Amino acid sequence: MSTLNYVIKRILQIIPVMIIVTVLIFFMIRLIPGDPVTVLLGDKATPEMVKLLTIKMGLDKPIYIQYLLFMKGLLTFDLGNSLHYKIPVSELISKRFVITIVLTFFTVIFSVIISFFTGYTAGLKKDKLPDQIIRMGALVALSMPQFWVGLILLIAFAVKISIFPVGGWGSTWPEHIRAVILPAFTQSLMTAALLARNLRNGVVDTLKMDFVDFARSKGLDDSSIKRDHIIRNALISYITLLSMRMAYMLGGSIIIETVFALPGIGALMIESIYSRDYAVIQAVVIIFAAIVITVNILTDIAYSFLDPRVTLE
Amino acid sequence: MKKVLGYLLIVALVVGLSVGCSPSTTPETPPETDAGSGERQIAKQIVIGRIQDSDDLDPVTQDGNVNIWMFNLVLEGLLKTNDEGTAMEPQLAESWKVSDDGMTYTFKLRPGIKFSDGTAVTGEDWVWSLKRAAAEDSTWRFAAADIVDVTAPDDLTLVVTITEPLASMEANFAMFNMTVQSKAYYDKVGQEVYSAGPIGTGPYVFSEWKRGEYINLVKNAYYHEEGLPKTEEIKFVVIPDDNTRALQLEAGQIDIATFVPFTKMTELDAKDNIVASGIPSTESRYIVLNNNNPKFANQKARLAFQYATDKKQMVDFILSGYGEVATSYAPKSGMFFNSELKDYGFDPEKAKALLAEAGYPDGMDVELLVRAGNVVYEQMAVILKEQWAKSGINVSILSLESATAVQMYRDMKHEITLSGWTNDMSDPSQQAVYVFDIKASHNYYTDWESERAVELMNAGVRELDPIKREAIYMELQQIHFDEVPMIPVFYSSYPVAMSTSIEGFVQTPLGNYRFENLVKYID
Amino acid sequence: MSNKIDTENLNDISLLNKKKTPLLKRSMSINIGVMLVGFMLIFAIFPDLIATHNPTDINFSDMLQAPSSVHYFGTDNYGRDIFSRVVYSARVDLTIGVIATIVPLIAGTIIGLLAGYYGKWIDTILMRTLDVFMAFPFMVLVIAIVAVLGPGINNVYIAIWLVGWKEYARLVRSRVLVIKNSEYIQAAKVLGYSDARIILRHILPNAISPVIVFGASDVVMCMLAAAALSFLGLGVQPPTPEWGSIIADGRAYINTAWWITAFPGLFLVIAGTGFSLVGDGLSDIIRTKGR
Predict the structure, then answer these.
(1) Using a CB-CB distance cutoff of 8 angstroms, which residues of chain A are in contact with residue C248?
(2) How far is A232 from chain C (nearest CA, A)?
(3) pLDDT for B465-502, tens place per residue?
(4) CA distance linking residue B216 with residue A171, whole number of Å
(5) Which residues contact residue C9 at a Cβ distance below 8 angstroms, ignoring those fewer than 6 apart?
(6) Is there a smaller number of Cβ atoms within 10 Å at the N or the C end of chain A?
(7) Model pTM?
């Protein structure tokens, strides 16, 4: 199947997936006990106050009507107003997404840099000292809770020595970059460890496969074998893993954002769940779903280019 | 010649770069001296870190301390409470008279008051503001609910009529929703923008709000007090994580941290550049028993829990001493506090005996519902489990996500839960409604009832003689104390830590911030 | 003698050219891993024999004490013995790690195998279902499920199972896509081997190594997810000890009582390392054995 046909086919498949997603999220969050009105009104809410505000906010309408109104809005790209903050959802989340994207971007950069060099080296020097050290390091990095590592880094590099701010996002772009370094680094440790191990194994596996011998027997020298074949093949599952981690991060790195006081999507999501802000939760999930699905499609296409043995169906 | 120019260019570049790229971990604080009095230099901006962001800054449509406590900074009314929260003082009213039947208040307003956009405050603004607060569908209606009519015969006179003579009316006039706001501004921007902050006559103005991040307030150029407020900008930043907030204070990134975890207070206070204080508050915490449950139907059983609880230990441990043991449901720093009530004390033997009398000689199994994520409640739960075990009470802790837990006890599905209260008003009538009027909150989610208490509650709002009124509230507290539908555990303070360069931080026991004199010295 | 080409041995020809990794070195990591996991298992199975105190005993006179001969790992802010709490946590954490991983691993692998091997509409349906699950950010789903179903470790499992299977499915599927077009699989098909045999004996062993490696680290990640939930106040019910929740609680005292966070952290790392080493060792063995 040609790439174009494949892309069209996938795009068409997005529609039923997204519809299922909207139905699921819409009804799922309303299943959770508690409601936005009670949260807004707080401890001093009398039943009368709750009833009044519920009607005022239109939340007393039958649920399927609310769903239809919501879908109608979606089709016109109107995500509605936040139930908690009263302002348009799009306004609320646009800045948050920027922060999360920047954080994810730097995390990916750190993860790839760290994991590429360590994983590749470890794979080539299998079972020798560099391999042992790198693998140990990766294992240790994997087992440390982010909220702990983040705190230690904060104390070391922001409080004791003031190279970085103690969390927060800052007000100018240079400040933003400075603010995002420690959180991105903290977050990259786990991903880098996973990727390094994945790459190392991919390299080892590929080195063992028959076609390397075949290529050798054809007279190709080791370095070009390395360059062309090993990297390409090891990359396939590396990319799979990377794209999954990226999708995970874009969905909100709630722990990191909490510890480093970064007002990103994760923090917004948690806040919205706690305050039962259905409008925001729905909007973020739907946007996130769209991103993830797109990333998946792109990854699948990337496979086919990296490995001619993989055919798109 | 070219060489010299080249060198000059390089020097200029280096100077330019070094000036432009100076890293700073502290916020911009260019010095500014007070108007020629040779006083100390103060900072232009003060940064305050808090746990949660506001959600709606329109006093009439919102309901939450995160919003309410900000209003004193921007809005002013006829009266205000004093800083100690014990009495009323005139604010924008110069004087007032009450009619003989107690139902008409005539205020003489201070002349020359302007809104922060420079427009003059008119009678129409007052009428509109108060009527809006009193409207049937306004969310926070409490203080304004008894208003019948508001008229302004001229711009300096305001006449308010109420349904019946109320002892709490003066306190009502001091409430944040009875403040004067600019009608023209509301008409111009509409409700949605208005929720981002009204225009008032207070010392500060809401200037910028990035939701979930910060609220910026700037000095009101038209403020009626000369020379105030002292600091030009106040920024409230949102830092949900307790530890990060404390660390930011340590590093000087913020100047004041509110709601510092009690456990960190001593540690922070020990630092040279930080002072941590417990500000007197009206905040109380309670152990709420669901009286519908047969286990708690008998007063003796409920009383057993009083004796099973070591409140002093809780204050020492959870509050690190920044609080006091509670006796009455009413806060110690509120009006008409009954100081005659003496704490039952910690006596596990007595508790066991009472439980036996109530039909539980082998002790009792209970489920304690806790709101997850709240450090104080979580600590209370762990300690109560330990303490009550000594009286034969076996606790299983049910820690639920906050809104889920709230829904559960609002539906009266809990056995025991933990809850709290802060006064919004300095009048005891507000809290009395929640404690004794079962329609409001199931009597604090206990479903306990007392006819006598309801009688007293209704009388208390109307009793104009202060001596008789005090007697009413004393008796109410005594009844509650004897019946023990719930157990007041402690009165906590507002734990605030700030840089030692800060002076003039005022927070009333009701929680309202007053920052006219707040300064940060930078010398 | 049959005319059947012995495909099994054909595959092994490539093995003849391999440098055999010294047996001792290869099994070293798995040995250490097994040792570490075993060490943890002892803690998990016999905590009462090892712990010195009751893990939930509050003792106000002993608060925040440094490690000593009475309290090997010091005490926390409630005066509870950290050593005993860390020991008792082993059972909780190991159980969480294993149970939360096994189900998604098996389910995800099966789904990935089917999707990758059969392709076409099976693949489409399975992968689009995966898309739907992927559309929900992990934390959102977990919190929503825990909020709906209530607290308690069982519901945390359900939440993690529902989100956990997709990584395995994708990993396996991506390997299967590569392997299934290779020569010896084509040969096996031509020879009329059943799908089941091809999948189980030829594809699975080659596709499984990233699964095992990831699974081993997934055990660790599930333990950390439980810790993260504790950090948010949604994890195990207090006062049950769990390494992550002890660390989360100890954060407030990191300047004054470093031992509260250090020791459970250390144990988490040891347990995590152990599992990962075992995972690595297993995947090494499987990789060289089955072809």
Answers:
(1) 145, 147
(2) 12
(3) 989 999 999 999 999 999 999 999 999 999 999 999 99
(4) 13
(5) none
(6) N
(7) 0.84
In this predicted model, which residue has the larger pLDDT, B421 or A250? B421
Question: Chain A within 8 Å of C228 (Cβ-Cβ)?
Answer: yes
Read off the pLDDT band of B415 (50, 70, 90).
very high
Q: Which of residues 135-154 of B touch A (CB under 8 A)?
A: 137, 139
Q: Indicate which of C56, C60, C230 best probes the interface with B, i.e. most B CBs within 10 Å of its own CB.
A: C60
| Average pLDDT taken over every residue of chain B | 88
The residue among A38, A86, A161 with the most chain B CBs within 10 A of its CB, best to mutate, is A86
Q: Answer whether B57's CB lies under 8 Å from B67's CB.
A: yes
- Minimum CA–CA partner of A293 in chain C: C131
Cross-chain Cβ contact B398/C237 below 8 Å:
yes
Within an 8 Å CB–CB cutoff, is residue C278 touching chain A?
Answer: no
Question: Please, what is the Cα angle at A164 between A177 and B15, to 5 degrees?
Answer: 75
Q: Rounded to the nearest 5°, which phi and psi values hold at B375? A: -60, -40
Higher pLDDT, B27 or B79: B79
Closest CB from C214, C232, C265 relative to A144 = C265
**Do the beta carbons of residue C222 and residue C97 sit within 8 Å?**
yes
pLDDT for B2 equals 43
N residues, chain C: 291
Q: Which of B23, B192, B244 sits opposite A166 (nearest CB)?
A: B244
Q: What is the DSSP letter of A172?
A: S
Q: First CA to last CA across chain A, in angstroms? A: 6
Q: pLDDT tens-digit profile of C49-87?
A: 888 888 888 888 888 888 888 888 999 888 899 999 999
Q: How far is CA A252 from CA A87, A259, A271, B26, C148, in A?
A: 21, 13, 12, 28, 21
Contact assessment for residue A100 and residue A253, using Cβ atoms and an 8 Å cutoff: yes
Residues of C whose CB is below 8 A from A142 = 217, 220-221, 272, 276
- Which residues does chain A have with pLDDT short of 70? 1, 209-231, 233, 252, 306-313
Q: Which of C17, C29, C276 sits opposite A142 (nearest CB)?
A: C276
Residues 6+ apart with CB under 8 A from A109: A184
Q: Cα dist. B480→A162, B300, B341, B447, C241 in Å? A: 54, 14, 11, 13, 38
**What are the chain B neighbours of C78 within 8 Å (beta carbons)?**
382-383
In this structure, are residues B171 and B427 in contact, taking their beta carbons and an 8 Å threshold?
Answer: yes
Three-state secondary-structure class, residue B348 = helix
Best probe of the B interface among C230, C255, C258, C261, by most B CBs < 10 A, is C255
The mean per-residue pLDDT over the stretch B92-97 comes to 93
DSSP B430-479: HHHHHHH-HHHHHHHHT----HHHHHHHHHHHH---HHHHHHHHHHHHHH
8 Å CB contact of C252 and B263: yes
Give the separation between CA A9 and CA A214, rounded to whole angstroms: 37
**Which residues in chain B are contacts of A179 at CB distance < 8 A?**
none
**H-state helical runs in B21-78:** 65-74
Q: Which chains touch B (3 or more CB pairs under 8 A)?
A: A, C
Token pair for B114 = 């302007």
